[in-house]
Every structure is written in structure tokens, then in C-alpha cells.
Amino acid sequence: MWAEILVIVIKVVVVSSVLLTLVPIMVWVERRGAAMIQDRLGPNRVGPFGLLQPIVDAVKLITKEDLTPSGVKGVDRLLYLLAPSIALVVAISVFIAVPFGFDPGLKLFGHAIDGFIVAPNLNLGILYIFAIASLGVYSVVLAGWASNNKYSLMGGIRASAQMVSYELAMTISVVGVLMVSGSFGLQDVVLHQSGTWFGFIPRWNVFPQIIGAITFIVAAFAETNRLPFDLVEAEAELVVGYHTEYSSMRFAAFFMSEYVNMVTASSLIVILFFGGWTLPGFATPAGWLGALVSIGIFAVKVAFFLWFFVWVRWTLPRFRFDQLMALGWKTMIPLAVLNFLLVGAGMALRNL
Amino acid sequence: MAFLVAHFTQIVFYVLALLAVLGGIGVVTFKNPVHSALSLLGTFLMVAGLFVLRHAEFLAAVQVLVYAGGIMVLFLFVIMLVNVKKLQPEAVFLSAQAPMAVLAGVLVGALVAFGLLAGKLAAAGGVPAALQTVDGKVLGNTEAVGWLLYRQYLVPFEVVSVVLLVAMVGAIVFGLKSASLDRGEGRAER
Amino acid sequence: MTNYIPIVIFTLVAVSFPIITLLIAKVIRAGSPDPVKAEPYECGVAAETTAFDTRFSIRYYLIAVLFVVFDVETIFLFPWAVMFDRLALFGFIEMMVFLAILLAGYVYAWRRGALEWA
Known about the structure:
The complex is a heterotrimer of chains A (about 350), B (about 190) and C (about 120). By secondary structure, chain A is mostly helical. Chain A is about 65% helix and about 0% strand. Chain A contains twelve helices and four strands; from the N terminus they run H-H-H-E-E-H-H-H-H-E-E-H-H-H-H-H. In chain A, the strands form two sheets. Chain A has a two-stranded antiparallel sheet. Chain A has a two-stranded antiparallel sheet with strand order 3-4. The model of chain A has no long low-confidence stretch (mean pLDDT about 85). Chain B is mainly α and about 190 residues long. Chain B has a domain at about 5-85: NADH-ubiquinone/plastoquinone oxidoreductase chain 6, subunit NuoJ (Four Helix Bundle (Hemerythrin (Met), subunit A)), CATH 1.20.120. Chain B contains eight helices and two strands. Chain C has about 120 residues and is an all-alpha fold. Chain C has three helices and no strands. Chain C is flat, with a radius of gyration of 25 Å. Chains in contact: A-B, A-C, B-C. Chains A and C meet through helix 1, helix 3, helix 6, helix 10 and helix 12 of A and helix 1, helix 2 and helix 3 of C.
């Protein structure tokens, strides 16, 4: 009993601290990456290559004055204070159902680790992730509503319309993956992708389901409110949208949740379409070494997609709102449906 | 401690149920519609917790995904569209509904009481394992739901799509009517 | 129920993190309140109207309704998808009928311009 709980606690502590440590690293990567793409230097004064810049940023944010707009009183004030916390809690909680490494049956303190995932026996898997992630929209709506600022309100409503629209494309594009793996558990999804076709094509879902992979990745960009879909904070139109009135650590909470969401989105892309921690033609060694190697493979793949997020942000211009909605409803949803129809037809033909 | 462990499920049930009822009371007592809506959100989440307690994980996920993540967003949009901060409470409007509300409440209460007395509710929730099995194999709640839904309850499932179609067409007809008013085609209200 | 222990612990950590950071910030941050600072931020121009004078397009409502309808549809897709192999061809045809009926609604929405944003 106590060994079991100890194992769980260790998992929780490691996962949450890695997740939160990735935030300053990603901020640094984003700023240096932007500088590289735009042919300038970027932060380079604090520490070697400006590596300590995110820490200084954090110190600055934490010591800034925290303002609450006038006219925000009573329950609205509570909502105003709650909104950034909801954003962060939702962003972190989603990661419970994300597996991040191969477990060959390892033990810790005489108790099975039960997979490199915080909650292994949750028979909801991806459904849990979608359910919790769908609550993220409340942080945006509440921040917009409670700020008593017209730009916040417009940004909040725009953001929620965008998030719900792309949530559809995202969930439908996963259906094809669930069909081939026949399970909600993301560990099963990864295991199903090990091995190769014809000896050289990895059995990753991205190859047979390229349409689904593209719709999922595009929807992931929209769900995390990243460029080219950051209509929420279109500064030319809305100041910065729903977090216009936020300052200090409350602003930082929104900021951090964006980066945590990016990490989760990248992990999901890797797990669902790019084989998770598997590598074709590579047999994972036994024991702890194998586990560490698999986690390393997973981390490299996730790092690539994190860089992809940064890369796209500084390459593409922002969409217009009507274009965004048209893309979501008229292109993404039909494509996502087409994906699982093709998968279904293929599987039905094979079974005939 | 031993008491806690032995009665863990009951304790969680009563906490969730109490919070759900409190949320329901909040819905009708808050003056601001946004606060009422959020109170309802709390109730939805607590009910999702109750579903998990009954081993109906799929239903819990649906509850969060559709009710909390979809329908409440719709409510909030509607509330924000009608500019509620300026809305005055209409006492007459509400009191006209009061007898109907009491009647509905009594009917629902009677139904629940009847179910409890007849022992139907208790029996229905008896075997959690049954919610997880497909063909004698334990696969999980969602799989069990799929197995039943797509083999035994075929007609209701297809009827659902018709209901959804009607909802969609209705919403579009009403919404576009107001949209054309918005643009000044036809007679606008103001 | 033990399957949910990790969720409870993780959620506690997730909830306590913002609380702790916000409390630390509360202790060490600067504070010099001023009524001008607390005014709604409109790029330095004094606010003429309040936030709630803004009127929103009815299209947000349409989007939300369509979202709910399609969300219910995707919910039906999930149990079908994981059981696809067991339900065999029968399940596939069943879902095609379901989708065909909804496709009619989708085409209707498209033709009526409910998906346009203007």
C-alpha cells in the first residue's frame, strides 16, 4: 500500500517538475529561435547565450504589482482571480494520461512502476485528456468576462469560439487512430505502432493516416492559441485579448499554461501519429537502460515538435477571424471525417 | 481511519452529492446569470464524479465533454449576447412560472421516490463489473457501452442522428433569422 | 477506486502550484495602488463605454449550437471506433447511416451560409 503510494508520488513529482521546468526552457528556445529566424541576436546578456534570461523574467514577473481593474467586485473578483489558476491547473492535469516511456516491468521499492504514466489504469485514456482539456475554455471565458474590459471580453469570446471549433476537428481526427489500435489507452496506441511495414516503413500512424495527422497538428496549434491561430491576442485589434488586464504572476500563469499546453500537444502528436517512444529497427534494451533510452527517444521527438511550434510561429502570418472559422468548419472537419472513413473502409476491406 | 477506508465510496458519494445540490441551489439564487451558469457547471462536474463512482467512466467523460465543455459554453455565449449586466430582474415573469416549477419538482420527486421504493434504482446499480464486460471479457466501460449501443440499441442510435439533425436545422433557422436582422435586412428591433 | 489515487494526488499538486506561486508573489511583489492604474486598459485613451456595451454577433451562438451537435456526434464515434474490429461490417454500415443523416444537416448549414462569418 505505502510502497504503491510512494511510487505514485515519485511519478507525480517527477512529471510535474519536468513539465514546469520545460516552461522557462521553451521561453528561451522561443526567444532565441525567433532571433535566429529574424537574423538578430535575441537575449544574450544574462548568463551564457542568455540562458538565465527566463529566470530573470520570472523574478521580474513575480515582483511586479498585481492590478485588479476597478469595477471588478464581489463574485466577479473571485472569478477574475480564479481564471489564471484554472488555465494552469487544466494544463497540468491533462498530462496525467500521457505515457512517456517504455516499461519492461520495472520495480521501485519492490513495487511495480506500472508504466511511465501517472495514472496507468485509467480506462479512459485519450477521452480523459479531451474531457479535461475541454474545461480549459473556462479560463478564457472567465478572464474575458471578469476583466470588465471590452478587449478582454471580445478576446475571450473569440477565443472560446475558436477553441470549441477546433476541438471538433481534433477529436474527430483521433478516431482513425483509435480504430486501428482498438483501445483508448495511449500505451496501447504506441505499442500498436512498433515494427515496420515491408521492412523499412515504420508502422507509425502518420503514414496511413496522413490526413488525420495534419488535421490533428493544425487543430493542436489552434487549441494552444499559437500562431497562425492566435486571434485571441491579435494585438493589432484586441490589445492582447482576454489577459489584457492581468499583470504579475497571474499573467505569468496564463503564459505558463500556454507552454505547458504546447508540451502536452507535442506529446500527443508524437504518441498518436509518430510512434511514441518506438524507433523502427531498434530493440529497446532490457531493464532501466531500456526505459531511459525509450524516454530519451520520446523526448527527442517531442522536442522536434516543440521546435516546430516555434518555427511556425515565426514563419506564418496570422489568420483573419473569418478565415479561421472557415478553415475550421469547412476544411478541417470534412478532412478529419474523411480520414476515419478511409481508415474504416480500408479495415473493412481487409477483413472481408 | 478504518472507518474512512471501509466507507470510502459512501463518503465520496455524499460529498459529491452535497456539492451537486449546493450547485443547484446556487443556480437559482445567484442574481447574475453568469454566476448561475458557473454554479450549474459545478453541479455538472460533481455529477460526473458520481458517474465515476458508479464505474460509468464513459458517461462521466461525456458529461464533462458535452455538458461542461459544450453546453455550458453555449449558455455563456447566450448570456453574454443578451448583455446581462443591464438586465433587470423581472419578478412577474418568474412568479408566473412558479406553479409550473413546483408541479414539475413534485413530479420528479415522486418519480425518484417510486424508483427507490420499488427497488429499481438499487438493483440497476448493483453489478459494476457488468458495466465493463463485453462477451464475458473485461474490456472497459466505453467498450461495453459501444458493444451494447451498436448491437442491441441500434434504432435509438439512428434516431439520435435525426434528433441532432432537427436541433441543427432549428438552430440555423433561428440564428440566421436574427443574423439577417443584425445586418438590417428585414425589420430590426432597434 | 485505487485507479484514481494518482489523479487525486496529481490534481492536488496541480492545484497547489498556482496557489503557492501566487502566495509567494503576494508576499514579495511591489504595490502602490492608484485609481488611474485600475481603469480598464484601452491603450491610454479614457474608456468611453464599458465592456458590456459591446454587442456580439449572433454567429457566436450559431457556432456554439453547431459545436454541441457535432460534439455529441463525436461522442458516438468513440465507442464505435474502439470496437470497430468486433462490430465488423455491420457496425461500419450502421455508422455510415448515422453520418449520412448528419451530413444532410452539415450540407444544409453550409448552403444556408451558417458557416460563413460575415
